[in-house]
Amino acid sequence: MRSGRAFLIWLVPGIAVALGLISLLSIGVYLVIFGVALAVFAAFKTQGRGIGGALVGAGLVSLYGAYLQYPGPGEICIPEPIGNGIHCEVNLDPIPFLIGGCIAVALGAMVHLWSVKRQGVVR
Question: How far is CA 16 from the centre of its chain?
């Protein structure tokens, strides 16, 4: 199996487990179980190649969280497009999400490149 395809196969369990951990109090338990089942499938299908994709998947979820929290930290109010109302929401500080996501993506890419170099597969 090509290393790029293995990387993409491992990307999906990483995303599923990260989303499951974020939403653990609602649907998260099912997403974690689904992600673990996908990881078992990926382990058999790829024989361990591309495991860095799981880290990159988790990092992408964290980067998306940073994007969603971008106007924060604090309470942000915007006018409603219809009517005279105002919509307010409390946003978290996006910096921890950004730092964690960047570290996870960088580590996942390094693990993948290291495993490709170690196996001698350059495809």
Answer: 8
For residue 11, how far is the Cα from the chain centroid? 8
Query: Could you tell me which residues come within 8 angstroms of residue 121 by beta carbon, excluding any fewer than 6 positions away?
Result: 2, 3, 49
Element of type H or E holding 38 = helix 29-46
CA angle in degrees (0–180, nearest 5) for 47-51-118: 75
| Residues 18, 37: Cα–Cα separation, whole Å | 14
Quote the pTM value. Answer: 0.84
d(CA 8, CA 30): 21
Q: Identify the band that residue 64 occupies on the pLDDT scale cut at 50, 70 and 90.
A: very high
